[in-house]
Structures are given as structure tokens and as C-alpha cells.
Design a protein that fits this description.
homodimer; 114 residues; alpha+beta; Arc Repressor Mutant, subunit A; three-stranded antiparallel beta sheet; 4 strands; DNA-binding
DNA sequence: CGGAATCCTCTTCGATACTG
DNA sequence: CAGTATCGAAGAGGATTCCG
């Protein structure tokens, strides 16, 4: 789902920490379990995914629902507030589509100057 | 111009590094000198302001023009590419106006839960 | 005036292993 | 399955001092 090779680290705009935006996009299609998030968000360790989810929960962006079953099951879901982040995310994606390559070219020109 | 007491560090959306957005907003009204940027952007040290400006210059967001005078004078100006950042910045400001306080309330409720 | 140099702290992120 | 515990690396950001 997310290409680890994409130069997203160069993006000048960030939503929350490194993984928050990916979590939010993943949760847009409905509630997801912990392990269902780990798959598309490649490269995230359980510890960091937990950190990210806790921070999002603290800010009221997601809800966490634990089911007392064996095996345990936990679902994360976007809240109304979490969905409000989609407008700025969309604006940032539009910016990236229009200007990201120009920025990378400017950067390369700068680095290759003498 | 920018209140250091404002909880901007809690903002889930960031443009570039900690100070880039403020620099861009300051430069919107026209070219500014190094020391003219240091005043409104309270709390930034020369080193970090230099870092920020270099990074923005590298990415083609600002131009740096040094005048060989005594005393020296350096002016920074937004490029066309730098101005494109205004759309996402505006979207983020709109988000903050609408939802920032709700996020802070959710956070406080989370922290005060038993 | 507009930085550069140095040193330092704090946070973020990750690897690995283990558990209720 | 859904985490937690521990350790460690790395980078951002800051304080202070010095320079052309």
C-alpha cells in the first residue's frame, strides 16, 4: 500500500509524527485491527505503531475498542475529529502532486552547484 | 507577531521544520533581512534561523541575496515555488481554526481520565 | 550585520526479545 | 493477537561563543 522507497521523508509537510498520516488513511476505509494496520504500513514496528495509535487516541482522532476474547482483538476507528484531518491532508497531497518534483529538482540543482 | 506561548507545538500538521512556516508567512509581505526575520519569529537562535533559511533555499522556496556593503546586508525573498506552499498552509490554518481546540480538549480529557 | 563553531539535550525512531 | 520492555542510534533544536 505504501511504498517505503517513496521519498516521503522529503515532504515538507507532515501530519503528526512519521506514521500518523498513513494510519489515518488506512482507517478511512473502516475500522482496522492492530495487525491489519501493520501490514500496509510497511516497516513500522509494533512499539512505534502503538505509540502512534496512543497519540492519535489521546488527541481524539481514533477510538480504541478491545474485545475480551481469545485470541484478543482490538479495533481502531477514525472519529469525527479524525476525519477533519482529511481536508488539510488533501491540500497537502494536491501540493505534492503539483510541486513536489519541482522542489526535488531545485534541491538537486542546489546540491550540484559549484 | 508570533506568540511563543501559543501551543503550536501541539499542532499535528507541520510545514518543514519547526520554523519554516513562520519564515514563509513573514516573507509573504516582501523581502526581509536576516535580522528582520529574527524579531517577529521570537525565540529562534541565529544558528537555527540560518539552518531553516538554508533548507528553504535548497528546496527552492526562497532566494538569498547578499549585498557587498558595510555593514553587510542579506535579503531573503519567496520564490514562485515558495508561494505554492500557501495553499496547504491555508488549509492547515483553516483546520486549526475549526478543530484545534477540540483536539486540545480531547487530549485534556484523555490525560484526566481515571 | 550575518552568520559559523562547538557542545549539549531531548525526542523520535528502530531492533530485538518477551508476555498475558 | 496485541502488545510491553529494554537498549541504542540519530537528528532536531538550543545555548553560548567567536568571526569577517
Amino acid at each position: 500500500m505504501f511504498d517505503p522507497a517513496c521519498p516521503s521523508s522529503a515532504m515538507p509537510i507532515r501530519i503528526g509524527d512519521k506514521w500518523s498520516a498513513q494510519v489515518i488513511v488506512c482507517l478511512d476505509e473502516g475500522p482496522r485491527r492492530f495487525s491489519e494496520l501493520q501490514v500496509p504500513i510497511r516497516g513500522v514496528t509494533p512499539k512505534v505503531l502503538t505509540q502512534t495509535l496512543r497519540a492519535l487516541e489521546r488527541d481524539g482522532m481514533v477510538t480504541r475498542t478491545a474485545y475480551a476474547e481469545i485470541p484478543p482483538r482490538v479495533e481502531y476507528e477514525l472519529t469525527e475529529l479524525g476525519r477533519t484531518l482529511f481536508a488539510p491532508i488533501a491540500a497537502c497531497r494536491a501540493w505534492a502532486a503539483d510541486n513536489f518534483s519541482a522542489m526535488l529538482e531545485a534541491r538537486e540543482a542546489y546540491d550540484n552547484r559549484d
